Amino acid sequence: MPGELPADAHDTNASPVPTGPAAERGPRERILDATTALLAEGGREAVSTRAVGAAAGVQAPTIYRLFGDKQGLFDAVAAEGFRAYLDSKTAREPLADPVDDLRAGWDLHIGFGLANPALYQLMCEPRPGAVPPAAAAGAEILAAHIRRIAEAGRLRIGEERATHLVRAAGTGAALTLIAMPEERRDLDLSLDAREAVIAAITTEAPVLADPGPVGAAVALRAALPGATALTDLERALLREWLDRIAGTAEPR
């Protein structure tokens, strides 16, 4: 059935008890480590209860008790992978120019995907009607990058649309490069995609230098959280109006 681990999931043969440094980690951490290693070595097909249990030194019931089913296990692995990705992002200081900071974030994103292809594909796996937890957390980080650009007055379209465009382009570029044989991988593809999407969503100078309702709406929308003179209800109403104005923009 969908979501279940392979047929050996009910194999209760004892797994080797871990020794050394591995023994100091709890069963959950050992299972996640084992699953991540199996994914890196052989992809999804390599992940079975028997293989995970043998590598982690646990039995099948422990895996089910901690993760529920295969999707739960994969979601947990993806969340751990995203945590590692976040650590790499927060280790660097934001650049003064928010557009350059978005470029740096893009490059870090692509680099993480190429260094961890199986994990990245798992993190970005489409799921009809739902957003994987790791992908949702990533969208929040990207939205913060876009917000900085909007606050600088350099966003030419609405924040939500800009976030979706960058996310779609970045994920697509990473997955395309992952699918290429390493010896034929064209890294300029990522740079071209990056600059194309940045040109579509940003301006060289603050948009208010060229007056217009869309630019004004985008800039005011970014500053709205600081409008303490308004009540929460008033801010929500104004945000809706500004989003409606900004949503009429087309990339120039």
Q: What is the CA–CA distance across the termini?
A: 49 Å
Principal-axis shape equals: globular
Largest sheet: none
Number of strands: 0
Tell me the structural class.
mainly alpha
The succession of helices and strands, N to C, reads HHHHHHHHHHH
Give start-end ranges of low-pLDDT stretches.
6-20
Percent strand: under 5%
The value of Rg in angstroms is 22 Å
**Mean pLDDT over the full residue set:** 81
Helix content: 55-70%
List keywords for this structure.
single chain, mainly alpha
List the helices and strands and how they pair.
Elements: H1 27-42, H2 49-56, H3 60-67, H4 70-90, H5 98-115, H6 117-123, H7 133-151, H8 159-179, H9 188-201, H10 213-223, H11 232-246
What does this structure look like?
With 252 residues, the protein is an all-alpha fold. It has a domain at 95-246. 63% of the residues lie in helices and 0% in strands. It contains 11 helices and no strands. The chain has helices at residues 27-42, 49-56, 60-67, 70-90, 98-115, 117-123, 133-151, 159-179, 188-201, 213-223, 232-246. α7 crosses α10 (213-223). The termini are far apart. The model is unreliable at 6-20 (pLDDT under 50).
